[in-house]
Amino acid sequence: MSTTPSPAPSADPPGPVPLDGTREPTVADLAGSAAALAAGQLATADGTPAGPERAATVPGPGRAVVTTVPGRRATVALGDVLPVPASVRPEPGADFALTVDTVIHAGPAARAEADRLAALLRPATGLPLPVTVDPAAPAADTITLALVDPGLGPEGYRLDVTPTGVRLTAATPAGLGHGVQTLRQLLPAGVESPAPVDGPWVLPGGTIADRPRFGYRGAMLDVARHFFGVDEVLRVVDHLARYKLNHLHLHLTDDQGWRIAVESWPRLTEVGGATQVGGGPGGWYTRDDYRRIVRYAAERHVTVVPEIDLPGHTNAALTAYGQLAPDGVTPSPYTGTEVGFSYLDPDRELTYSFVADVLGEIAALTPGPYLHIGGDEAFKVPADAYARFVDRVQPIVAGTGKTVLGWHQIAPAAHSPGRVLQYWGTTAADPAVADAVRRGARLLMSPADRTYLDMRYTPESRIGHDWAGAIDVRRAYDWDPAGYLDDVPAEAVLGLAAPLWTEYVTSRAEIEYMLLPRLPALAELGWSPRDTHDWEAFRRRLAAQGPRWETAGTGYHRSPEVPWPVAAVPAPRVPES
Ligand code: TNX
Q1: Which residue has the CA at smallest separation from atom 12 of ligand 1?
Q2: Contact between 132 and 105 (Cβ < 8 Å)
């Protein structure tokens, strides 16, 4: 499939706008609405008093914080979590209020998750929330995290909220991490504030028992068309972790840039990393940068999947090492958005020593099980030569100890143990893919007309491609990853992944505009049981995420398909007079 890039959109951020759903809010708008809310100029979504009356009841810094008021009730219902949990049993009247006395207690192996929970809750609540591993911690007023297997699989967790304490159990740290994200969403939106805001901080009583439908739930960030620094990538990891996605695929190389240092071929980054779409300066990750991303992601239970796109999409590599070019002529750097013109020569031995060096280094830096070898849009390579190439590269991957992941164009090649095809087509019938599955391949579903986060929301969207159609929230949500492809058993589907190509995405704000709110829609398809699939219920739960993003200063597309609250940014605490 070829792409027909849309005309380059303006990269200008939108000007200040009312939060009326007609245009996208910027961080500045959101800060403005927080101030307006504090000044009593806006109503909160539920009509509760906002502004000075409410804020004035909040003690300022230095005064005692009032933390327990009898009869306080949770404001979030136990099931209002995204992705929706597998099982929810509310216990009315069993709410738990966080107070100045609340302690987070963990066994030593759960300490890191307890620290992360405390770090997520302290800024907004202003509560001390000390973390203790002391087995003699008080039983009451405690949030306990324990690596005790609740029988919910490797990523499942159980959360029990009672008036005297909260207990989170899981078989693994990943399960606890997912439970922590659930707990965070059960507190009011103000919990996302980077500075203290008014509580109360009450969790709804009852029990959640939760586990994912699919083991692979991911997103892809293309750092080749436009380069994004480590901080931008870490921010994307945060969005993934929040919605229980567990794989971040980094598209590290393409015609416009090579973004990962390779010691044995240093010009790949020095020369090949020096530009991007539009001719900007580009950039690349040092090995330490990459390690930092991998570590930060791992701490949040996200596995990094590196992609070296082969044999096409290689112009940047060829600008660095002209001897790899099929005609021996070093090409010019490419800063446009066309695809399919570049390739490594499948009939040259140098190609394979290059590939082995690169994949060997990337494998050594990557703790996760997968190496993604691309394989898409090698239009200039004849089919037989292409198959020979993939047949030689797959064993190189296996030789590094990793499992092959590739775009579904690699389907006709021989089977390689465990290999996974990432299906990005838009048709239900793909005989080559079905045949590869019969020979043992498994599938990651990324159908472009549902999961492509670079597609416009509507034809009027500010940025994005449109070759796979417009994808607003309902289109992203209303399909089944296990049922998309014909002639493929559901068991072959490992999960789904949502790619964000960045020909037209140039900044953190634009990344977030494209991710949100589609990412949580896809996250729910990956996590929640199929029998919970319900557009009306989903869009109501999604609406409640808006105030959370606003509070955190995160931009998003205010899709008209979602009943967003009018404005619900919590009032900041009034400074002491
Ligand atoms: C197709 S999907 C591509 C990318 C483009 C994308 C734009 C795939 C494997 N290849 O090279 O960036 O379309 O939507």
Answers
A1: 501
A2: yes
424 CB under 6 A from ligand 1? yes
Q: List the structure tokens of 45.
A: 């979504």
pLDDT in tens, 125-182: 999 999 999 888 777 899 999 999 999 999 999 999 999 999 999 999 999 999 999 9
**Listed residue (143, 288, 280) closest to 224, CA to CA:** 280
Q: What is the pLDDT of residues 324-375, one digit of tens each?
A: 999 999 999 999 999 999 999 999 999 999 999 999 999 999 999 999 999 9
pLDDT in tens, 544-562: 999 999 999 999 999 999 9
Residue 567's pLDDT band (cuts 50, 70, 90): low
Query: Average pLDDT in the 413-436 region?
Result: 98
Single-letter amino acid code for the residue at 235? R
Could you tell me if the CB of 452 is within 6 A of ligand 1?
Answer: yes
- How far, in Å, from the CA of 3 to the mean position of ligand 1? 7
527 Cβ inside 6 Å of ligand 1:
no
| Residue 408 in tokens | 């579904």
Q: What one-character DSSP code corresponds to residue 21? A: S
Q: Ligand 1 within 6 A of 377 CB?
A: yes
Q: How far is the CA of 415 from the centre of ligand 1 (A)?
A: 24
Q: 53-67, 293-307, 391-405, 515-529 — which is least confidently predicted?
A: 53-67
Q: Tokens 């112009």 label which residue?
A: 315
Positive or negative, the Cα torsion across 562, 565, 566, 571? negative
As annotated, the active-site residues are: 377
Q: Is 206 left (phi over 0), alpha (psi -120 to 50) or beta?
A: left
465 lines ligand 1 (CB under 6 A): yes
Which mutation among 2, 6, 376 tests ligand 1's pocket best, with the greatest number of atoms within 8 A of CB? Answer: 376
In this structure, the residue with its CA closest to atom 5 of ligand 1 is 501
